[in-house]
């Protein structure tokens, strides 16, 4: 008998992956957590029935959330990750030897513990001595912090459930205050393609551009997220991801990456016309 994982991408579109087994299913105080094993995508986990991370395309997301800001501001020393319980974002950050401090604030400890057990491919650097884990709501953690971080990476779920507050005006304002003068905020920015996701993309962008002098959006290809077309937001107090791009400096780090490269750094900010229109409307 064939076993299939099916996820609703819109009311009339489903996405399915054949699975070998569904081996973990628990309700945490925050969300429903499920782990599966599949032939095509290896091990993957879902939160409230939505794909978060799988072994096959996680490199796309984690390269793009990390290396774009690191190549814009190569002197980043203090970083805050909000969400990201699978550890993939932290793994990429730990590859930079000059980063001194990585705080990760994840609301759901159960996600982290399950990923350490079943997804070591992403969780394997959470024990790096520069990393401190906080199991709290990122929304609360950031309140009252002033000029503490050079980079904030919001590696969050969609704006439903515990992730909702991480798409609010109050949260983005607190992030602005928590950043240093050359600070950068990267946030999980949803997808421009299906209207149910594009609505959130637009709402998020409209808020961030009111707070940050520089506010851009960049894209990448994520096969297992709805439509495969996904975005991160790049917001900063002073640095522009294209004008201030430090190509040579980043290349001198000598990091091997599977998705990100310095051509893509500029390319990913070139948006299709329908996306530009949606963002400008
Ligand atoms: N690295 C890609 C994985 C994720 S998971 C996002 C994480 O954000 C989850 O572990 C969830 O528990 C955590 N989270 C949600 N809300 C909060 C909050 N308020 N404070 C701290 N952590 C939170 C991202 C997947 C993106 C999926 C896009 N479709």
Task: List the keywords.
281 residues, alpha/beta, Spermidine Synthase, Chain: A, domain 2, Rossmann fold, seven-stranded mixed sheet, five-stranded antiparallel sheet, binds S-adenosyl-1,8-diamino-3-thiooctane, Polyamine aminopropyltransferase, polyamine biosynthesis
Your description of this structure?
The structure is a single chain. The chain is α/β, with parallel strands linked by helices. The protein folds into two domains: 52 residues, Spermidine Synthase, Chain: A, domain 2 (Roll); 223 residues, Vaccinia Virus protein VP39 (Rossmann fold, 3-Layer(aba) Sandwich). 31% of the residues lie in helices and 32% in strands. It has ten helices and twelve strands. The strands form two sheets. It has a seven-stranded mixed β-sheet with strand order 8-7-6-9-10-12-11, with helices on both faces. The longest helix has 17 residues. The chain is globular. The protein starts with a strand and ends with a helix. The mean pLDDT is 97. S-adenosyl-1,8-diamino-3-thiooctane binds next to strand 5, strand 6, helix 2 and helix 5. Pathway: Amine and polyamine biosynthesis; spermidine biosynthesis; spermidine from putrescine: step 1/1. It is an enzyme of class 2 (transferase). Catalyzes the irreversible transfer of a propylamine group from the amino donor S-adenosylmethioninamine (decarboxy-AdoMet) to putrescine (1,4-diaminobutane) to yield spermidine. This is Polyamine aminopropyltransferase.
